[in-house]
Write a structure and sequence with these properties.
The structure is a single chain. The chain has two domains: 8-47 and 189-353 and 361-389, Dihydrodipicolinate Reductase, domain 2 (2-Layer Sandwich), CATH 3.30.360; 57-186, NAD(P)-binding Rossmann-like Domain (Rossmann fold, 3-Layer(aba) Sandwich), CATH 3.40.50. Helix content is 34%, strand content 26%. It is built from ten helices and 16 strands. The chain has helices spanning 33-57, 72-81, 97-105, 118-122, 139-148, 163-176, 190-200, 236-249, 343-357, 365-384; strands spanning 8-12, 61-66, 85-91, 113-115, 129-132, 152-156, 180-183, 207-217, 258-265, 271-279, 285-291, 293-304, 307-311, 323-328, 333-338, 388-389. The strands form two sheets. The chain has a ten-stranded mixed beta sheet with strand order 1-15-14-13-12-8-11-10-9-16. A six-stranded parallel beta sheet has the order 4-3-2-5-6-7, sandwiched between helices. The radius of gyration is 21 Å and the shape is globular. Mean pLDDT is 89; it is low at 2-7 and 14-44. The structure holds NADP nicotinamide-adenine-dinucleotide phosphate (NAP).
């Protein structure tokens, strides 16, 4: 991906332009320019470091894709675009499906090998890392099989349906000396680093609450995503709830103490809509809600002791202009528009860079376990009507 400078357009609104924000008569004008400049510098430094590392090694990580999944529409172009990655092969268990997916999503890449078994791809010695977009309940098994073949693994979220499975993945990865990361691509979009920077600047005070909301109306063609019960990885929790929980968690330093959730289930045992609260202690709560039966939202909002920040489009697509808005009790009221970025490509470049340069991936297996622990507890709470203690 081109490492062009990140530009930020900062728009100071009249205070009434963001709903619910009033302006006190004694309110000060807030000047955000210093923060914006810091932000540009830190992003440029990261991108320059990445570029320098790539130039040092001048190597590309050789990727294989395990599964002819729909999400390859995003990932195949991302691997091709990434400066330090090379797409070597794709495999499917359905004869001809790998070739069809290649023709559909990367028609110019006829040199890419196609396999009609997943095992054949794992046996390919010219593949360093695999991207794994199989169905949720198959992630742990095939991550382990890839590790045993000495492959590094970028596994789609959720990495596994139990913490015990992630423990097994961690032990196997350590034994075979490979890296494994859960594919929360959204985290590689610079807009979240910007939110973190705003929080660290102290502008909204101490973080007390986060609300993360993800929903869309499930199209009939995708109803199969609700065909499996939550025990088998089906439903909204494993599909989009994992984003809501992951994004809500990132702003709390404390370990969660309990989870409470409610859900609507359908006949298959999948949840179609779930809401809940993660209790981080001392009155600090993360509220999550997600649904396949509501209009599209993919946003989070952080409320501190002195103001709030909202990220308006967490699933930002390449070309989308990301928007972050924030307000403060003393009358600050700002909307920032960042440059578009492709978080799928940034995720591939990050993981490739880690492997090529011997660094640990930004999303750790402990993070994957922490997310899984909350998901499992939330499902338990929704099923039992109980508050589930985590400590
Ligand atoms: N990061 C994101 O933005 C994002 C978005 C959506 C989904 N995901 C995640 O990515 C993973 C894949 O999701 P998806 O929606 O792309 O999955 P999908 O299209 O349902 O494919 C999942 C797997 O099922 C098999 N498959 C595909 N089409 C099939 C068909 N018509 N009949 C039978 N089997 C078929 C494929 O394996 P074979 O080729 O081996 O048969 C494929 O790898 C999931 O874990 C999901 O949570 C991530």
């Amino acid at each position: 991906m081109a490492t062009q400078p990140i530009l930020i357009q900062t728009i100071k609104h009249p205070p009434s332009s963001i709903q619910g924000v009033g302006r006190r008569p004694d309110a000060k004008n807030y000047n955000s320019s210093t923060i914006a400049v810091d932000r540009i510098e830190s992003l440029q430094k990261y991108q320059n470091d990445l570029k320098a590392n790539q130039m040092n090694t001048n190597k590309k990580l050789r990727w294989g894709i395990l599964g002819a999944a729909r999400i390859n529409e995003r990932l195949m172009p991302a691997i091709i675009e990434a400066e330090n990655a090379q797409l070597v092969a794709i495999a499917s268990r359905r004869p001809g499906a790998a070739a069809q997916t290649l023709a559909q999503y990367a028609p110019q890449q006829q040199q890419v090998r196609t396999y009609d078994t997943l095992e054949a791809l794992l046996d390919d010695p010219e593949i360093d890392a695999v991207y794994l977009p199989l169905a949720n309940h198959q992630h742990a098994e095939w991550t382990l099989r890839a590790i045993e073949q000495g492959k590094h693994v970028l596994c789609e979220k959720p990495m596994a349906l139990t913490v015990a499975d992630i423990d097994a993945i961690e032990a196997a990865a350590r034994w075979h000396k490979v890296s494994v990361m859960e594919g929360f691509m959204y985290r590689f979009h610079p807009q979240h680093a910007r939110v973190r920077e705003l929080i660290d600047s102290g502008i909204i005070g101490e973080v007390r609450s986060v609300r993360s909301s993800f929903s869309f109306m499930m199209r009939p063609a995708r109803i199969y995503r609700l065909a499996e019960s939550v025990e088998n990885g089906g439903g909204a929790m494993w599909d989009i709830g994992c984003y809501a929980i992951h994004s809500a968690r990132m702003f709390f330093d404390e370990a969660p103490v309990a989870v409470t959730a409610i859900a609507k289930y359908i006949d298959s045992g999948a949840d179609a809509a779930t809401s809940g609260i993660i209790d981080f202690g001392d009155g600090k709560y993360a509220h999550f809600d997600f649904s396949f039966e509501r209009a599209r939202r993919c946003e989070y909002e952080i409320i501190g002791t002195q103001g709030g920040i909202k990220c308006h489009n967490v699933w930002s697509m390449p070309g989308d202009v990301p928007v972050i808005s924030w307000w403060t009790e003393d009358g600050g009221n700002v909307e920032e528009r960042l440059s578009p970025a492709n978080h799928f490509c940034l995720e591939i470049e990050h993981f490739s860079d880690c492997i090529l340069n011997g660094n640990a991936p930004a999303l750790t297996l402990n993070d994957a376990k922490a997310n899984c622990q909350i998901i499992v507890a939330a499902l338990q709470s929704a099923a039992s009507g109980q508050r589930i203690k985590l400590v």
